[in-house]
Amino acid sequence: MRTIGVVTSGGDAPGMNAAIRAITRIAYSENLQVLGFERGWEGLIESKFRPLTPRSVGGIIQSGGTILHTLRCPQFKRKEMIRKAAETLDLNKVDGLIVIGGNGSFKGALELSRETDTLIVGVPATIDNDVFGTDETIGFDTAVNTAVNEIDKIRDTAISHERTFIVEVMGRKRGFLALTVGITVGAEIILVPEVKFEKEEIFKILKENSAKGKKSSIIVAAEGIGDTRKLAKEIEKNTAAEVRLSILGYAQRGGSPTARSRLLASLFADKAVKLLLKGRGNRIVGLQKGRITSIELEKSCKTEKPLDLKLLRLASVLAT
Amino acid sequence: MRTIGVVTSGGDAPGMNAAIRAITRIAYSENLQVLGFERGWEGLIESKFRPLTPRSVGGIIQSGGTILHTLRCPQFKRKEMIRKAAETLDLNKVDGLIVIGGNGSFKGALELSRETDTLIVGVPATIDNDVFGTDETIGFDTAVNTAVNEIDKIRDTAISHERTFIVEVMGRKRGFLALTVGITVGAEIILVPEVKFEKEEIFKILKENSAKGKKSSIIVAAEGIGDTRKLAKEIEKNTAAEVRLSILGYAQRGGSPTARSRLLASLFADKAVKLLLKGRGNRIVGLQKGRITSIELEKSCKTEKPLDLKLLRLASVLAT
Amino acid sequence: MRTIGVVTSGGDAPGMNAAIRAITRIAYSENLQVLGFERGWEGLIESKFRPLTPRSVGGIIQSGGTILHTLRCPQFKRKEMIRKAAETLDLNKVDGLIVIGGNGSFKGALELSRETDTLIVGVPATIDNDVFGTDETIGFDTAVNTAVNEIDKIRDTAISHERTFIVEVMGRKRGFLALTVGITVGAEIILVPEVKFEKEEIFKILKENSAKGKKSSIIVAAEGIGDTRKLAKEIEKNTAAEVRLSILGYAQRGGSPTARSRLLASLFADKAVKLLLKGRGNRIVGLQKGRITSIELEKSCKTEKPLDLKLLRLASVLAT
Amino acid sequence: MRTIGVVTSGGDAPGMNAAIRAITRIAYSENLQVLGFERGWEGLIESKFRPLTPRSVGGIIQSGGTILHTLRCPQFKRKEMIRKAAETLDLNKVDGLIVIGGNGSFKGALELSRETDTLIVGVPATIDNDVFGTDETIGFDTAVNTAVNEIDKIRDTAISHERTFIVEVMGRKRGFLALTVGITVGAEIILVPEVKFEKEEIFKILKENSAKGKKSSIIVAAEGIGDTRKLAKEIEKNTAAEVRLSILGYAQRGGSPTARSRLLASLFADKAVKLLLKGRGNRIVGLQKGRITSIELEKSCKTEKPLDLKLLRLASVLAT
């Protein structure tokens, strides 16, 4: 192991830079060289990279985004592109490649691993927290707090106007973000794609709350549940509530990472470099039962991470 | 002058509570009693109010929203409702009424002033900053900073993904919020309802920026300019840019007020109480040329506040 | 189990209110009544309490501090005071008591448990994170992020002025806060009471950094390491560095809790009520290996929680 | 006018980078070249500078600190050093020099102006807001908000523990920062160097507050008033209050500038470049009566800016 590559791929997440910094510095302390591939898989396909050194990754631990840039790269599904990437690794004698990203990136990494001898290790970084093999991904805690801060502000205006707000948060097809955000803002209702909900049930809860003297309500909805605009109208029609919709946008993907996202980035980086040094590839690192660990890349790609339904039930008790 | 009333009306704005607190405490130091009318004009129509004391307004200077709650009250356009409000003031011997709100509220206040002898003073509080007679309204600085913080985060992801973002901010039919936000986030383009723009011009600027090496751009658009969703699609079709839209929502209306919004609230409150003590009503207080002053309520209602177009030109120079 | 009491004791920590809210609402969903004792142990000694209901704990999940107030209560070491507290529990038929606080509070709780049949459960809430039996306490994550945000700002001025900053953070006699803060701000040096350090070593690192081109440095020091003022002077004398000291103050103890502190508060509350319902007392709840669990109160009081020294070593690699 | 220089000097202030960016871009739009001198006056003395271009100042509007770095430079009081700086300007054909800084920097600029034909314009940037000729300096609004956010957090713990806090804020020998911070956090007492205070008066106010039911108090003290540690002890001795001291540190000087600090930076930059283009030097730009204006450099240096004592009186009414 003499040279390792780093690439950030897919959607960006706060803490990716902290991971790049940690990987680079830990690698150097082990006498490895580090190449940073630019713009996701495109950097591997087109052989665009730059050396990363302990100094060149200084001052980025607190920055959102990724200094290596990132792209969604649909063409990376084509065999020939994957082979070009494998060639780049081969030509540049990259012994190990660390892929920082989410599920989509890991699927790409799995394909790539079949065409190359370079050891590949995945570092889970996505605000969606939907990677099997880790309880938490880099960036998740930051996105949660960004959404929570927003909703705390929205609650001011919800209370002043005695309104019901539907707040749509990100999370793609999954409800991890919505669930954690919902429970920590004290949402009256949390809607996630993993659990079917009856609209009648929502109407009922809102009416009961109103009878109890709760004049404003917050509904946190995952983007994956479908058309929140329509839902807002239906609630307005079926209850006495004045309903407003707020779709939290791309700010959830940016911003300075929280301490926890930075720490996770550092710990994952450490584990990833150590795995490569031991000659172990085709794995992703993760946090499991409070410890930094790793599982097979393929298993992560092929298993759906379950949502904690007990937490959802607790949330509904807490919203009484 | 023995008893004054306070009401918050229309959309809420951060700093309304700071104004309520300041009015109450200044009034008490002048041996006045203070009645807080609840839920906007409805509190006047239905005679719902509570006494406010220096202690009961403690601990609210930093809170968003309004402890008096607020409603939009379309029925307040009906003469009989206005008369009921006037009666409430009369029955409760309210010598002066301070109305905290924006343009809509001041129009209501003007109508009300024609039916009552109670002196009425307006305190401008709206995130839209569109009240004639004041350079700045309570809540504007807070909303600007909320939007700026969001867009700083969005820029992280814009840069990482080399994308163009349209960020829609509030402001109703006016561009005050968009202009100040746009210049302070360093937006490449600012779109306000007051200035017609050619789509071709936007395409051109984005292409020039791209040629200059600016791979990501932020367009700040006021909600009043029309359909930003459509605009995003058109830009995507006519340039090489990958465009995303983010609509900043109701968080702009909430949150803890900035120091400036709190200070303005305190200074406006002081002026409003002083005007009442001097027996001067039917005015709104304001900040003009750096000083706290007042103008006639009717003049404020009937004059459109101009947008500073020089600032818009400066913004475009700064975005080079 | 029909009535439970809640008390917050010792230093306050962000998330205590979220815990009070969660305990109350979960208890009510189990048909328990809840009494909130005021001002720490004093409320038990002097029988000052108020009923808590699902409505009376509304709107506090995001508030720092504790609505029950808290005191350090040195007199609670006297037997007669403890007996008075036990009497209060007895007289008011309090079947279970939940004590929200840190080590000091739990020692009091242990004493109290010897004088009463009321079941006692501790919920760890302290920014110091020094409670044995839990990997994390309520408030810790918030305090870490508060300190990190401050130090991110200090780094701006450190870099601009090419200075070395010693930043002293809280943590009493332990280094948990300093360690997590230090690694997540990318501190060049972290000083904790658990690890002896040679001043010569500090001088050497700073000189090496300077030679490497690092013109500014951040040293994060736990308050427990001794006189940082003196240390600053010694560093200035023994290196070419211009040194400034910044002691982060009580803001670390306040502020709106982070999502994680709120979540932990909710999970701990749930576990605490469940323990009482099962008739299990004299325990504290905690987070261990990523799961909510509990250990004996006495064991928690008598065991020192170890600091993760591997993390300290990782920090020094990352600071290269 | 073909080439202008920019230098940041003295203590850094948030918004300096926004000013550098704006100066550079406005200058380029006027076909001027821009040289950035590094590390304050040292850059002029030792002829260390780099060209600044619209692209090289991209992405810094939101950054604290100064990309040009800054030093306090006591040697700049010596004639020969000033002459060396004048020589540098001459050799590099710098037609105009914009000095971004506070009073100390402007005194240096005044000295320099006597040794050179280069036109000099000052742009006031200091968190102390103590520059005569402008109602507000770049960075002031940011520092105020940083302090306010801190104190809002401290109030949580003050209320929970029913304590009195003295919070010392920066401001050197003046009370501008303390006054604005004090009024906007709702401080019970504000202490500034400009107004003598009797300790007995403080004791009396605190006792009265306690009698009124205010169990916690915040005293905001300017660093210029003297030994706050001693004051804390004296208050504790002479009242029943439990007193804590929190000295807000260097974070007040860093952090991302607020919208207002960024806007002021842009407007000042515009005015400064315009003055140079008109051949007017030896002035400082400023905000007066709500408009961007300028006064003579010498007058600014030799006049003490008055503190608004009416605001202090208002603060004491608001604290009732």
What is the class of the largest domain in chain A in the CATH system? Answer: Alpha Beta
CATH topology of the largest domain in chain A: Rossmann fold
Oligomer: homotetramer
Give the strand tally of chain A.
Answer: 11
Description:
The structure is a homotetramer. In chain A, α1 (about 15-30) runs parallel beside α9. In chain A, α1 links the parallel β1 and β2. The first copy, chain A, has 2 domains: about 5-140 and about 255-300, 3-Layer(aba) Sandwich (Rossmann fold), CATH 3.40.50.450; about 140-255, 3-Layer(aba) Sandwich (Rossmann fold), CATH 3.40.50. The first copy, chain A, starts with a strand and ends with a helix. Helix content of chain A is about 40%, strand content about 20%. In chain A, the strands form 2 sheets. Chain A has a 7-stranded mixed sheet with strand order 3-2-1-4-5-10-11, sandwiched between helices. Chain A is of the alpha/beta class and about 325 residues long. The model of chain A has no long low-confidence stretch (mean pLDDT about 95). Chains in contact: A-B, A-C, B-D, C-D. At the A-C interface, α1, α5, α6, α9 and α11 of A face α1, α5, α6, α9 and α11 of C.
